[in-house]
Amino acid sequence: MRKIRPAAADRGLPPGKKTTCRVAYAEKGEPIMEKRYPEHYDRIKGLLGKLGKEAEGTMAGFGQLHKQAMADGALSAKFKELITLAISITARCEGCIAVHVRGALRAGATRQEIVEAIGVAIYMGGGPAMVYGCEAFEALGQFEASAAR
């Protein structure tokens, strides 16, 4: 179940102040839990491995589906990663965002290509996709920074 965040006035902010939830919580002095997408990717990858040991058939089947669906064909693997990123945003899946921002970068997508894919997802998904598009944008910056190290 998702935690419903209170309206700005309920958080003690001045009326009419426009701000993001993270900023609003910081101004009020409440703790903010920031997602670190490279670490989140590693965590998801580890959990997938553990689940694969318990549900071998299902996970092996999904692995084959992934391999076939994401292989170069009429659409390049890079283009497919951009599609999956946009779907991840509209589906509101942070784990998927981590996997597919990383995948798009590894497939050779540029920052601008990823930002445009985020824009298409926002167009198709409206307000909720805009929020998750921001998450994808944050993930992009974090993966770029970790690759530069």
Walk me through the structure.
With about 150 residues, the chain is mostly helical. The protein has two domains: about 35 residues, no CATH class; about 110 residues, AhpD-like. Helix content is about 70%, strand content about 0%. The protein is built from six helices and no strands. It is globular, with a radius of gyration of 18 Å. About 25% of the residues are buried.
Write the layout of secondary structure elements.
Blueprint (H helix, E strand, L loop, with lengths): L20 H8 L8 H18 L1 H15 L6 H14 L3 H13 L4 H38 L1
Helix pairs in contact: 2-3, 2-5, 4-5, 4-6, 5-6
Describe the structure concisely.
The chain is mainly α. It is built from six helices and no strands.
Structure characteristics:
149 residues, mainly alpha, AhpD-like, 2 domains, 6 helices
Provide the helix percentage.
Answer: over 70%
Class of the largest domain, according to the CATH hierarchy?
A: Mainly Alpha
Query: Order of helices and strands, N to C?
Result: HHHHHH
What is the total number of structural domains? Answer: 2
The main pleated sheet reads as: none
Return the structural class. Answer: mainly alpha
Number of helices: 6
What oligomeric state do the depicted chains represent? single chain
Give the strand content: under 5%
CATH topology of the largest domain: AhpD-like
Low-confidence stretches: 1-26
General form: globular
Instruction: Tell me how many strands there are.
Output: 0
